[in-house]
Protein backbone atom coordinates (compact mmCIF):
# COMPACT_ATOMS: atom_id res chain seq x y z
CA UNK A 1 0.00 0.00 0.00
CA UNK A 2 1.84 3.08 -1.23
CA UNK A 3 0.91 6.58 -2.37
CA UNK A 4 3.28 8.63 -4.45
CA UNK A 5 2.56 11.78 -6.42
CA UNK A 6 -0.35 14.00 -7.35
CA UNK A 7 -1.04 13.05 -10.94
CA UNK A 8 -4.28 14.75 -12.05
CA UNK A 9 -6.48 17.76 -11.20
CA UNK A 10 -10.21 18.16 -11.78
CA UNK A 11 -12.01 21.50 -11.77
CA UNK A 12 -15.55 21.56 -10.39
CA UNK A 13 -17.89 24.46 -11.10
CA UNK A 14 -19.28 26.05 -14.24
CA UNK A 15 -17.23 24.13 -16.80
CA UNK A 16 -17.94 26.44 -19.74
CA UNK A 17 -16.82 29.55 -17.82
CA UNK A 18 -13.74 27.76 -16.48
CA UNK A 19 -12.73 26.55 -19.93
CA UNK A 20 -12.92 30.06 -21.33
CA UNK A 21 -10.92 31.59 -18.49
CA UNK A 22 -8.15 28.99 -18.28
CA UNK A 23 -7.92 28.72 -22.03
CA UNK A 24 -7.00 32.42 -22.11
CA UNK A 25 -4.68 32.37 -19.08
CA UNK A 26 -2.80 29.08 -19.55
CA UNK A 27 -3.47 28.29 -23.21
CA UNK A 28 -5.33 25.13 -22.20
CA UNK A 29 -7.61 23.43 -24.71
CA UNK A 30 -10.07 20.59 -24.17
CA UNK A 31 -10.54 16.99 -25.23
CA UNK A 32 -13.95 15.33 -24.96
CA UNK A 33 -13.91 11.66 -23.92
CA UNK A 34 -17.10 9.50 -24.02
CA UNK A 35 -17.74 7.85 -20.64
CA UNK A 36 -20.79 5.74 -21.58
CA UNK A 37 -24.46 6.24 -20.74
CA UNK A 38 -24.44 9.38 -22.83
CA UNK A 39 -21.94 11.14 -20.55
CA UNK A 40 -18.81 12.93 -21.76
CA UNK A 41 -15.77 13.87 -19.68
CA UNK A 42 -14.00 17.04 -20.77
CA UNK A 43 -10.25 16.78 -20.23
CA UNK A 44 -7.83 19.68 -19.92
CA UNK A 45 -5.34 19.43 -22.76
CA UNK A 46 -1.93 21.06 -23.01
CA UNK A 47 -0.69 20.38 -26.50
CA UNK A 48 -0.88 16.61 -26.98
CA UNK A 49 -0.96 15.90 -23.24
CA UNK A 50 -3.99 15.72 -20.93
CA UNK A 51 -3.39 17.02 -17.40
CA UNK A 52 -6.81 17.29 -15.77
CA UNK A 53 -10.49 17.70 -16.40
CA UNK A 54 -13.64 19.73 -15.90
CA UNK A 55 -16.55 18.43 -13.85
CA UNK A 56 -19.85 20.26 -13.29
CA UNK A 57 -20.42 21.21 -9.66
CA UNK A 58 -21.99 23.83 -7.41
CA UNK A 59 -18.87 24.60 -5.36
CA UNK A 60 -15.97 25.83 -7.55
CA UNK A 61 -12.64 24.28 -6.67
CA UNK A 62 -9.91 21.83 -7.62
CA UNK A 63 -9.89 18.12 -6.74
CA UNK A 64 -6.33 16.75 -6.54
CA UNK A 65 -5.78 13.10 -7.52
CA UNK A 66 -3.19 11.08 -5.60
CA UNK A 67 -1.52 8.22 -7.46
CA UNK A 68 -1.75 5.00 -5.40
CA UNK A 69 -1.04 1.32 -5.96
CA UNK A 70 -4.09 0.08 -4.03
CA UNK A 71 -7.08 2.43 -3.82
CA UNK A 72 -9.11 0.04 -1.65
CA UNK A 73 -6.32 -0.29 0.91
CA UNK A 74 -5.67 3.45 1.03
CA UNK A 75 -9.40 4.22 1.39
CA UNK A 76 -9.62 1.65 4.20
CA UNK A 77 -6.63 3.29 5.90
CA UNK A 78 -8.27 6.72 5.60
CA UNK A 79 -11.45 5.33 7.16
CA UNK A 80 -9.48 3.69 9.99
CA UNK A 81 -8.02 7.12 10.79
CA UNK A 82 -11.55 8.42 11.38
CA UNK A 83 -11.74 10.31 8.10
CA UNK A 84 -14.43 10.28 5.43
CA UNK A 85 -14.63 8.19 2.29
CA UNK A 86 -16.97 10.16 0.02
CA UNK A 87 -16.80 7.82 -2.98
CA UNK A 88 -15.87 4.19 -2.43
CA UNK A 89 -13.16 2.77 -4.70
CA UNK A 90 -14.78 1.76 -7.97
CA UNK A 91 -13.72 1.03 -11.56
CA UNK A 92 -13.35 4.07 -13.79
CA UNK A 93 -11.87 3.85 -17.27
CA UNK A 94 -8.52 2.06 -17.11
CA UNK A 95 -8.24 2.15 -13.31
CA UNK A 96 -9.87 2.54 -9.89
CA UNK A 97 -11.12 5.86 -8.49
CA UNK A 98 -12.14 7.01 -5.01
CA UNK A 99 -12.69 10.28 -3.16
CA UNK A 100 -11.63 10.64 0.48
CA UNK A 101 -10.94 13.43 2.95
CA UNK A 102 -8.33 14.31 5.57
CA UNK A 103 -9.11 15.07 9.27
CA UNK A 104 -10.06 18.65 8.40
CA UNK A 105 -12.48 17.55 5.70
CA UNK A 106 -10.26 18.50 2.77
CA UNK A 107 -11.22 16.18 -0.08
CA UNK A 108 -8.85 14.56 -2.57
CA UNK A 109 -9.12 11.67 -4.99
CA UNK A 110 -7.28 8.37 -5.16
CA UNK A 111 -6.30 7.06 -8.58
CA UNK A 112 -5.04 3.52 -9.09
CA UNK A 113 -4.16 3.10 -12.79
CA UNK A 114 -4.59 -0.17 -14.60
CA UNK A 115 -0.86 -0.23 -15.29
CA UNK A 116 1.88 1.06 -12.95
CA UNK A 117 2.80 4.69 -13.56
CA UNK A 118 5.87 6.65 -12.57
CA UNK A 119 6.97 10.18 -13.34
CA UNK A 120 7.12 13.59 -11.75
CA UNK A 121 5.46 16.95 -12.20
CA UNK A 122 5.99 18.24 -15.72
CA UNK A 123 8.36 21.15 -16.33
CA UNK A 124 6.33 22.30 -19.32
CA UNK A 125 4.85 25.80 -19.23
CA UNK A 126 1.13 25.48 -18.64
CA UNK A 127 1.38 22.18 -16.76
CA UNK A 128 0.67 21.56 -13.08
CA UNK A 129 3.98 21.70 -11.26
CA UNK A 130 3.24 21.56 -7.51
CA UNK A 131 0.49 21.07 -4.93
CA UNK A 132 0.17 22.90 -1.62
CA UNK A 133 -2.13 22.11 1.29
CA UNK A 134 -3.40 25.08 3.25
CA UNK A 135 -4.28 23.64 6.66
CA UNK A 136 -5.74 25.11 9.83
CA UNK A 137 -4.11 22.39 11.97
CA UNK A 138 -0.64 21.32 10.89
CA UNK A 139 -0.36 18.70 13.64
CA UNK A 140 -3.47 16.83 12.50
CA UNK A 141 -2.56 17.14 8.84
CA UNK A 142 0.99 15.89 9.35
CA UNK A 143 -0.20 12.91 11.40
CA UNK A 144 -2.62 11.97 8.62
CA UNK A 145 -0.10 12.22 5.78
CA UNK A 146 2.52 10.41 7.84
CA UNK A 147 0.05 7.53 8.27
CA UNK A 148 -0.27 7.40 4.47
CA UNK A 149 3.50 6.99 4.16
CA UNK A 150 4.73 10.53 3.62
CA UNK A 151 7.79 12.01 5.35
CA UNK A 152 7.90 15.59 6.65
CA UNK A 153 10.80 17.80 5.58
CA UNK A 154 10.18 21.02 7.54
CA UNK A 155 11.57 24.36 6.41
CA UNK A 156 11.68 27.44 8.64
CA UNK A 157 10.07 30.32 6.74
CA UNK A 158 10.57 32.92 9.49
CA UNK A 159 7.47 35.03 10.19
CA UNK A 160 5.46 32.87 7.77
CA UNK A 161 5.96 29.82 9.97
CA UNK A 162 7.04 26.34 8.98
CA UNK A 163 6.75 25.06 5.44
CA UNK A 164 6.31 21.29 5.50
CA UNK A 165 7.46 19.43 2.39
CA UNK A 166 5.77 16.04 2.02
CA UNK A 167 8.01 13.37 0.52
CA UNK A 168 7.61 9.73 -0.44
CA UNK A 169 10.24 7.35 -1.78
CA UNK A 170 12.76 10.12 -1.18
CA UNK A 171 11.04 12.51 -3.60
CA UNK A 172 9.28 15.77 -2.78
CA UNK A 173 5.61 15.43 -3.74
CA UNK A 174 3.75 18.36 -2.18
CA UNK A 175 3.82 20.69 0.80
CA UNK A 176 1.64 22.18 3.50
CA UNK A 177 1.48 25.33 5.59
CA UNK A 178 -0.69 26.29 8.53
CA UNK A 179 -2.99 29.16 7.57
CA UNK A 180 -5.24 30.06 10.51
CA UNK A 181 -8.48 31.75 9.61
CA UNK A 182 -8.51 30.46 6.04
CA UNK A 183 -10.39 27.41 4.75
CA UNK A 184 -8.38 24.21 4.46
CA UNK A 185 -7.82 23.32 0.81
CA UNK A 186 -5.35 22.02 -1.73
CA UNK A 187 -3.91 24.66 -4.06
CA UNK A 188 -2.41 23.31 -7.29
CA UNK A 189 0.29 25.40 -8.97
CA UNK A 190 0.75 25.88 -12.71
CA UNK A 191 4.15 26.44 -14.34
CA UNK A 192 4.19 29.85 -16.04
CA UNK A 193 6.85 31.69 -18.01
CA UNK A 194 6.09 35.07 -16.41
CA UNK A 195 4.20 35.17 -13.11
CA UNK A 196 3.61 38.93 -13.25
CA UNK A 197 2.25 38.92 -16.79
CA UNK A 198 0.07 35.87 -16.12
CA UNK A 199 -1.33 37.36 -12.90
CA UNK A 200 -2.06 40.64 -14.68
CA UNK A 201 -3.86 38.85 -17.51
CA UNK A 202 -5.88 36.74 -15.07
CA UNK A 203 -6.88 39.86 -13.11
CA UNK A 204 -8.01 41.57 -16.30
CA UNK A 205 -10.19 38.52 -17.01
CA UNK A 206 -11.86 38.71 -13.60
CA UNK A 207 -9.54 36.83 -11.23
CA UNK A 208 -8.68 38.05 -7.75
CA UNK A 209 -4.97 38.03 -6.94
CA UNK A 210 -4.76 36.81 -3.35
CA UNK A 211 -0.96 36.79 -2.95
CA UNK A 212 2.05 38.05 -4.89
CA UNK A 213 3.63 37.81 -7.28
CA UNK A 214 6.53 37.42 -4.84
CA UNK A 215 10.00 35.92 -5.01
CA UNK A 216 10.71 32.77 -2.99
CA UNK A 217 14.43 32.01 -2.60
CA UNK A 218 15.59 28.90 -4.51
CA UNK A 219 12.05 28.33 -5.79
CA UNK A 220 11.01 31.13 -8.11
CA UNK A 221 8.33 33.78 -8.38
CA UNK A 222 4.86 32.79 -7.21
CA UNK A 223 1.34 34.13 -6.98
CA UNK A 224 -1.98 32.76 -5.75
CA UNK A 225 -5.28 33.77 -7.29
CA UNK A 226 -8.98 32.97 -7.22
CA UNK A 227 -10.51 32.53 -10.66
CA UNK A 228 -13.75 34.40 -11.53
CA UNK A 229 -15.76 31.59 -9.88
CA UNK A 230 -13.67 31.71 -6.69
CA UNK A 231 -11.52 28.57 -7.09
CA UNK A 232 -7.97 29.03 -5.79
CA UNK A 233 -4.95 28.18 -7.95
CA UNK A 234 -1.26 29.10 -7.84
CA UNK A 235 1.26 30.35 -10.39
CA UNK A 236 4.92 29.38 -10.30
CA UNK A 237 7.67 30.86 -12.44
CA UNK A 238 10.54 28.57 -11.42
CA UNK A 239 14.04 29.85 -10.82
CA UNK A 240 16.02 29.29 -14.01
Write down the CATH topology of the largest domain.
2,3-Dihydroxybiphenyl 1,2-Dioxygenase, domain 1
Radius of gyration: 17 Å
Proportion of beta-strand residues: over 45%
| Overall body shape | globular
State the major sheet: 8 strands, mixed
Oligomer: single chain
What order do the SSEs take from the amino end to the carboxyl end, as H and E?
EHEEEEHEEEEHEEEEHEEE
CATH superfamily of the largest domain: 2,3-Dihydroxybiphenyl 1,2-Dioxygenase, domain 1
Describe the structure.
This protein is an alpha+beta fold. The protein has two domains: 3-113, 2,3-Dihydroxybiphenyl 1,2-Dioxygenase, domain 1 (Roll); 128-238, 2,3-Dihydroxybiphenyl 1,2-Dioxygenase, domain 1, CATH 3.10.180.10. Helices cover 18% and strands 52% of the residues. It is built from four helices and 16 strands. It has helices spanning 15-26, 71-80, 138-147, 195-204; strands spanning 3-13, 29-36, 39-46, 49-56, 61-68, 85-92, 95-101, 107-113, 128-135, 151-156, 162-168, 171-178, 185-191, 208-216, 220-226, 232-238. Strands 2-3-4-1-5-8-7-6 form an eight-stranded mixed β-sheet, covered by helices on one side. A hairpin with a 3-residue loop joins strand 14 (208-216) and strand 15. It is globular. The termini are far apart.
Amino acid sequence: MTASRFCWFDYTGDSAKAQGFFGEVFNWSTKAVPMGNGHTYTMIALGDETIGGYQPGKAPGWLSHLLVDDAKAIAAKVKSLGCAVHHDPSPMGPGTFAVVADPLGTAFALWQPGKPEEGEFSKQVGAFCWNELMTTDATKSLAFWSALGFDDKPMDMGPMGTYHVLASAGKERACMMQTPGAPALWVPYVHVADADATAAKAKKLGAQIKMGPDNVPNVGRIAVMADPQGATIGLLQPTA
